[in-house]
Design a protein that fits this description.
By secondary structure, the protein is mainly beta. It contains no helices and 11 strands. It has one domain: Immunoglobulins (Immunoglobulin-like, Sandwich), CATH 2.60.40. 25% of the residues are buried.
């Protein structure tokens, strides 16, 4: 499943779907499109996906830089891999300036991992 994260400087982050529901074993990735606008610094945006209390993956946090293109958009993808455990997980999606570490947004969507349908 591909989870889309769209954000525009100064506006709330949108995450679709939320909640996301996948069968255990399915691969999950998060794709970011951040519009920094014409006044954006040329620093990359760092996308971090993190799980605080339990994780359906073999990891608890993963980050990738999203470099700006000439139009001010930053794009990046976190490849989460296959889910390992069923459950209802509240997780974090943080956007920050990769150079200064200044936070841009921090949201808490849900990922629901269900048993494999037979």
């Amino acid at each position: 499943m591909l989870i889309y994260i769209t954000a525009k400087r100064g506006e709330p982050t949108q995450i679709h779907p939320d909640p996301a529901t996948v069968p255990v074993g399915d691969t999950v990735a998060w794709k970011l499109d951040y519009d920094g606008g014409s006044v954006t610094p040329k620093d990359p945006v760092e996308l971090t996906v993190y799980f605080g209390r339990g994780s359906p993956f073999k990891w608890h946090a993963i980050s990738v830089p999203a470099n700006p293109n000439p139009s001010g958009h930053h794009e990046g993808t976190v490849e989460g891999g296959p889910t390992q455990e069923t459950g209802d997980y509240k997780y974090g999606v943080r956007l920050s300036n990769a150079r200064t570490k200044e936070p841009l947004s921090d949201d808490d969507p849900r990922l629901v991992v269900i048993a494999t349908l037979r």
